[in-house]
Design a protein that fits this description.
The protein has no helices and 6 strands. With 118 residues, the chain is an all-beta fold. It comes from Hibiscus sabdariffa (roselle). InterPro entries: Transl_elong_EFTu/EF1A_C (IPR004160).
């Protein structure tokens, strides 16, 4: 076993930690170990989206505000989400995203999601 001491690790690095006061049964998949105040839980966030056309591997339908996406995947979790607001590049609210469009969408999650902006 390699006994090096490192300053940090990234995703998929194998590390061994000694956490005093915790038993193996206290740890569950998806738990996060981080420095205090470096990640924050969010229920609502905004992102820029490009909708692929069918020929580029996208779906064959457009969507509007209120659309519920069945699975939102981010690393190790699957969550339900709802698109609440759609805005175009002029920051005007629009009703629907069509194929080949860029848009800023506001997404509301059903459970809080941890986000690191490092």
């Amino acid at each position: 076993m390699d006994q090096r001491i490192v300053e940090g690790a990234t995703a998929r690095d194998k590390v061994h930690l000694w956490l005093k006061g915790l038993q193996m049964e206290d740890i569950q998949r998806g738990m996060v170990l981080a420095k205090q105040r470096t990640i924050n839980p969010y229920l609502i966030f905004c992102t820029i989206l490009y909708v692929f056309e069918k020929k580029d591997g996208g779906d064959d339908f457009s969507f509007s505000a209120g659309y519920k996406i069945a699975q939102f995947r981010r690393r190790t979790i699957n969550e339900n989400e709802k698109v609440t607001v759609i805005m175009n590049d002029k920051v005007e609210e629009i009703k629907m995203i069509m194929f080949g469009d860029y848009a800023c969408i506001v997404i509301q999650l059903m459970k809080q999601l941890l986000v690191s902006w490092a």
